[in-house]
Amino acid sequence: MKVAPQSGITAVYEGRRFFFDSEYCRNAFLEDPERYAAAELPGEGEDLSARRVAYFSMEVGIDPRLPIYSGGLGILAGDTLRSLADLKVPAVGVSLLYAKGYFDQRLDGEGSQTELPVSWNPTEVVRALGPTVQVMIESRSVLVRAWQYDVVGQTGFRVPLVLLDTDVPENAPADRELSYFLYGGDDRYRLAQEIVLGIGGVRMLEALGYRGIERFHMNEGHAGLLALELLRQEPGGGSLAEAISDVRKRCVFTTHTPVPAGHDQFSYDLVRSVLGEPIPLDELRMLGGEERLNMTLLALNLSHYVNGVAKRHGQVSQQMFPGYSIDSVTNGGHSLTWTCDAFRAVYDRHIPGWARDPFSLRYAIQIPLDEIRAAHAEAKRKLVEEVAKRSGVALAGETLTIGFARRATAYKRADLLFSDPQRLADISRRVGSLQVVFAGKAHPRDAPGKELIRKIFRVAKQLRDDVRVVYLENYNITLARLLVSGADLWLNTPLRPLEASGTSGMKAAHNGVPSLSVLDGWWIEGHVEGMTGWSIGPRPGEDGADPGAAEARDAADLYEKLGSIIVPLYYTQAATWAEVMRRTIAFNASFFNTHRMVQQYAANAYV
Ligand SMILES: *Cc1c(COP(=O)(O)O)cnc(C)c1O
User: Fold this and answer.
1) Beta carbon of 594 within 6 Å of any ligand 1 atom
2) Tens digits of residue pLDDT in 394-435
3) Nearest C-alpha to atom 3 of ligand 1 is from which residue?
4) How many angstroms separate the CA atoms of 218 and 585, rounded?
5) pTM metric for this prediction
6) With contact defined as beta carbons under 8 Å apart, do 585 and 509 qualify?
7) Which residue among 12, 78, 441, 495 is least enclosed by CB atoms within 10 Å?
8) To test the ligand 1 pocket, which listed residue (406, 412, 479, 484) has its Cβ within 8 A of the most ligand atoms?
9) 504 lines ligand 1 (CB under 6 A)
């Protein structure tokens, strides 16, 4: 980060002197000076009251050095902030700074996962801000402080990400730990964190001088308490209905969860003891649910604009909450971030300006096929190299490589590909050889998720002679970039309708990597059979009555597509395969990006 000119660590670039607070920051600058040189000096002098949008998220995946994300929700938040910065939307992000991160994943020879706290030094990545605020948790006053990470757009415009934590000496030891772990602890811990995020976040923005926020955007229900804080702050004198109506004008809610069980809910006993009564309990019940405090319901009732994260997910959410009007804004990926170096160079040559205008990736349809092939070969070489370095497994450069990486949790069905190992081995032996790269962490308390990883290890051993399989530890942003560009085929096999959107296939599309996926979430929109990839299983609405049959039917279809279409195409029709890659970029990267998404939020929800 750049700091005011009192630090002794400096660099000169194009005749200007820049100041840094550590060697680390200076080195980061020297790697990409153009981008940072364009940025304004943070803090001093800027009129923060000109910021109009505050984006709240429990997790943000923006920098591999910031271990404050667990999966797609966080990555989406990070990509959103990047596009907000690129598009010069006057926004600020709010999340928590988890001193011990999510966790470091270790896998033993059987695929059993152990979790270690992440050791990292926040001062190397973020800078401390002065103001503190207080929140009440279990009738104690808890001090909250803040840090800032600057999201610098390609235009030099900066969106600050304000990260809150409670790890200060003034707090009792148990309160200091409230910001240690992302998604750690019990319901009490979670509710306390949501108080820090929602209530602490609103107060911190005020303390920092963000006085002009017109839209508070809740990325998932975790941030719902911000709306409650806004309601509490409403001037007295008017009716409750008027106060609610005022708050609703200021709030926007994006839901990510397609089933009721996935929504954050807290018993009112817990709410009373941890949160107290910021508003009278009968009013809270009216807004958040009679039986339990449901954060989705609270956010729904206090927002003027609500959306799901893909068209289908918008419809599913609308059916779940028929009394509300629920729109959809399909997710995206940040194009520059998720495009590998080799494809960046190709796009730079053929589509100048693509990174600031990713819609123009539609012109990829004219890129010569051999350039597409060469760029992919380069990305694949890097993946093969990294896999060897991390695992000792030597993948074959010419073998069709399937990538599967995301949170290891039951509904994502990482093991669907392995439901009939013999059949997979047959395809690899008789039709064309296959290898598979997996990665993904299971939540520490997700026993079925952990079992999924062990199962993959077991089947991998069984398949050893026919299909090379590797499971990489510690899936994160860095590894994701390698995988979504270096794999030949991106596999996604969620149980419908549980994949609200999914974003990794969009990232793969930015690198010309086609998807083979169940028709759920974004793939219903991005899929054109044989053109941008392939589907698994029936179209939505044609599921049949027996959900138990879904597994066998999806698996059979998966093997059928692989064995009779995809593997033969890959090995015998190289030009056609390259055309699929090119179409994947032109159709899907040009649309499933966060620039398009942020512009929809701006048009539908922010103005
Ligand atoms: C993109 C991404 C995800 C989300 O993957 P899905 O397939 O959408 O679930 C999770 N983790 C990381 C590190 C990612 O980059």
Assistant:
1) no
2) 999 999 999 999 999 999 999 999 999 999 999 999 999 999
3) 72
4) 31
5) 0.93
6) yes
7) 12
8) 406
9) yes
